[in-house]
Amino acid sequence: MGPAVFWLSLAVFGVDMILSPSWSFCIDIGGKHAGQVSGTMNMAGNIGSAIIGPLFPTLLLWTGSANVFFYIVAGCSVVAAGCWMFADSTKKIADLPAR
What we know:
The protein has three helices and no strands.
């Protein structure tokens, strides 16, 4: 049980450490459109959550091991961290044209 508690604690720590910067990034690049940017970010996260639910048991049936799912999630996390390295909060989203 000790390793499980450690890894769960590390995961929760990681989530809590990225929450504020990700919302701040939306404000930085969105300016007066920050609500639209943060809404898009939130929607993308919800789509990911909707996909993950059925994906776990499907991968378990296909592979016979839960480890594959966690390797995929770890790989996606590394890619996401790499994307954050190239994110530039000084570049603003241009104003939308008037309708």
